Amino acid sequence: VAEAEVHARFAVTTKPESAGFQNHLGVLLTRLGRYDDARQALEAALDLGGDTTTVHKNLGLLLADQKLFNEAVEQFRLALAQRPNEAEIHGLLGETLHRLGRLEEAEQELTQARSLNPRHAEILVALGSLLTQTGRQPEAEQAYRDALEARPNHPRALYHFALRGTGGEDGPAAIDIATLDASRARASLNGTD
To answer: How far, CA to CA in Å, does 184 sit from each of 3, 87, 122, 157, 159?
Structure first.
């Protein structure tokens, strides 16, 4: 990881006008938990201009990691202003609005994300979580089933069914806790959850 940072900083030094290199450094520093340095790199990328959709998205992720949800919402909205049909960003915005308790807005964004990419497991799981919270269990169950269809052994979808003790008629009938643990371990190694 330290070597990756050295390479990223070298790239920025050799080509300081590259928003892509600044963005890459910002993402790397975010993953290392060095939020102030990451924010500085991402803001430098924004200052360089061009298509800043990805930079706004990454800055939104950084701010959400820091639990600065209102600021994260603003960044996701700026990203969507440039790419309104980006399912992942609608999903991230929906999840962030959900964390803020703005459930109607969150559902609108997650529904839009699902319509843009109906097989995006993370979006389906986020929608399932929201629907569970709002008491719409049959719809939530379907969202979790769809997530498992899109990505078998998705840890959060499996966890949902494990908590309920059933997968419903069409879902996994019995979740093996070893499968759940193995799935979580793979997700952790792959940088997904």
So the answer is: 27, 24, 14, 11, 10
Six token digits for residue 32: 């290392």
**Which residues in 85-109 are b (16+ Cβ under 10 Å) and which e?**
ebbbbbbbbbbbbbeeebeebbbeb
State the virtual CA torsion across 11, 58, 180, 178 in degrees, nearest 10.
20
Max Cα distance, the chain (Å): 58
Task: Express each pLDDT in 33-69 by its tens digit.
Answer: 999 999 999 999 999 988 899 999 999 999 999 999 9
**Alpha-carbon separation of residue 71 from 39, 64, 123, 127 (angstroms):** 12, 8, 21, 22
This prediction has a pTM of: 0.80
